Structure formats: structure tokens, C-alpha cells
């Protein structure tokens, strides 16, 4: 631990600046300007150089590329579709799921959505939550609860809950799509305004 700190200090800006100033002190010594106090001069210049050196700047963290994250999300969406194709759902819920599937596919389509999601990390996170958690949880809970409901007639039918859950998820994804459309429209209007202002300034 101490060795690592020592090595880091040797490579630091403070040590480099201090060493450069110390070498200047040695040059003064060789020219006879430092006199008998040359050790104090060299040490003082080293200390001054180390003090005025800019502080170390830690490297910025290398976060995941948004484009790679979207590619991974598209792969997970394909896996989700393969899972859903194996589950038997009631007609109403199946219709709702088809609508939701189409909307999610459009949001993830690079040609339809373009770079809109790349510029919206919150939207990407919300979409990821729907695909990786909400839809699988809703369908799996329905599949498990349906069996227990047969043993207790009169209980609230699980297909009603599933249909309601899928409706809520569709509404959330639809609101996301509307927000992306509005953001793209604002971006286009802003660029138009910029070009008009630039033209007037010339």
C-alpha cells in the first residue's frame, strides 16, 4: 500500500514540477549563485514547485456506451418475444400484449426511432425496465396464479389482472413514444431557429 502511494507520488505532477524546480536550484548552485546554502535553495525550490503544481485530476469513469446498451436491450427484447411465444394467454390479454409488442419493437427500431433513445437515458432505462422486468413478471405471475385459482373458485381471475397490467405498460410505453416525438420536434425547431438566426446575422 505504502509502495503504491510512493510510486503514484513519483509519477505525480507535484513531484515532476518539484523536481524541475529542484534542477533549476542545482543549476544556480553550479553557477555559484546559491552559495553555501545550496541545499536549502534546492529543497526550497522543490517544495515551491510541488506546491504550485496543479492537483492530480482523476480519470473520468468509462461508462457503458449508450449504443451498446441499446443493442443489448434489443437482444433481450428478442429473447422476451421467444419466451412469450411459448406462453398461452387469454384472448384479451394476448391482444394487449400484441399491441405492446408492436410499440416496443417500434421504439427499439433504429430506423424508426433513430437516435432519439440514445439522447434519452431515462427513456432507455424505462424501456429496459418494461422489457427486462415488468412484462416477464406480469406474464409469469399470471401463469403461476392461474393454477392456484383453479383450486379456489370465486377468486378474482388472474387474466383480468394481466390485462390491466399490460394496459398500464402499454400506456407507459405510449407516453414514452410521445415524449420522444416531442423531443425530436423541439430539436428540429431549435435547429431551424438557429439557422434562421445565423442567416440574419450574415
* Mean pLDDT metric: 79
- The secondary structure category is mainly alpha
Largest sheet: none
Low-confidence stretches: none
Q: How many DSSP H or I helices?
A: 8
Q: How much strand content do the residues show?
A: under 5%
Task: Please tell me how large the radius of gyration is.
Answer: 32 Å
Please give the number of β-strands.
0
Describe the structure.
The structure is a single chain. The chain is elongated, with a radius of gyration of 32 Å. The model has no long low-confidence stretch (mean pLDDT 79). It has helices spanning 2-10, 13-30, 38-52, 66-84, 91-108, 110-113, 121-151, 158-201. By secondary structure, it is mainly α. The longest helix has 44 residues, at 158-201.
Question: What is the fold's blueprint, element by element?
Answer:
Elements (H helix, E strand, L loop, with lengths): L1 H9 L2 H18 L7 H15 L13 H19 L6 H18 L1 H4 L7 H31 L6 H44 L1
Helix pairs in contact: 2-3, 4-5, 4-7, 5-8, 7-8
Condensed summary:
The protein has 202 residues and is an all-alpha fold. The chain has helices at residues 2-10, 13-30, 38-52, 66-84, 91-108, 110-113, 121-151, 158-201. α2 (13-30) runs antiparallel to α3, α4 packs antiparallel against α5 and α5 (91-108) packs parallel to α8 (158-201).
Main attributes?
202 residues, mainly alpha
